[in-house]
Amino acid sequence: MLIVDKLAFQEKLSEGEKTLAAYILAHGMEIAKYSTRSLAEVTYTSPPTVLRLCKKLGFTGFDDFKQNFVRELEYLDQQQGKVDFNFPFAENDSPMRVAQNIGELYEEAVKDTMQLLRYEDLHKAVLLLKYHEEIHIFSAGTAINQAESFREKMLKIGKRVVIFNNLNYQRYQACCLSERDLAMIISYSGETAQMLEIARQCKRSGTPILALTSFGENSLTCYADCKLTLSTKESIYQNLGDYASHLSMTLLLDILYSEYFRQNYQKNYTYKLERARELEQHRTSTNPILLNLHKENAE
């Protein structure tokens, strides 16, 4: 749930907290200039009331709330781009118009994903990959296809990644994990019942969770030790295809792999090259570009 929705849903707030919530919603980005005391003064409440509201919303204090609230407003202001992410083409569009729109959608989805990516989240996510024996990926949807590509890359540098396509097997898989493993749960909505069941099982067994999910707070984020945010401009149902969310997943997984690779670059490259020479001798091509021969000829 977005912060603005939490502020609007005032059923469990005191009268003073309702006054604060209404003021914050009415003044939006202006809240960035306030301190706890100045906000209390302008709303005729008190600093403890401000802190109570922030904690009810899930934040450690007003500064934490303010940072996340402003970030959310900035993201919501950017929702309108050149292309409608849900309906990127029309029935009467020409083939090249369709191609152009999908290309622009991809550009915007990549830009959106990068704007949502924070250094501290990426750093923590890669540490989780490094210091756990196995990575177990869970997803109820077609994100498994993106995850399979990530698994292949990681296996080629010697890191074990486990994926089961069958949801029932995934539930049993979660029961076998321990604190030595890492659970990566991919869910665009963050509300899929099976994924939440798996998340709860992981918490019971002490298995850390890396979540790839949508912007804002959802049920999955409450269980996650680390979250990477997917581009969140597509409706769950009312769209022509999961273009942006799938591209965003692929991008984040490729970034995770690349940063994991970089942190032990020479060792990973040597391992990958040796395994390729041993196991992929059958792969060949008459195209010099694919074999890097064009570079040798140029030299």
From TrEMBL:
Annotated CDD domains: SIS_RpiR
A molecular-function term among this protein's GO annotations: DNA-binding transcription factor activity
Domain HTH rpiR-type: 1-76
Protein name per the record: MurR/RpiR family transcriptional regulator
SUPFAM superfamilies found in the cross-reference section: Homeodomain-like, SIS domain
PROSITE patterns per the UniProt record, alphabetical: HTH_RPIR (PS51071), SIS (PS51464)
Organism expressing this protein natively: Faecalibacterium prausnitzii
Keywords per UniProt: DNA-binding, Transcription, Transcription regulation
All residue ranges annotated as the SIS domain in the record: 125-266
Record GO biological process: carbohydrate derivative metabolic process
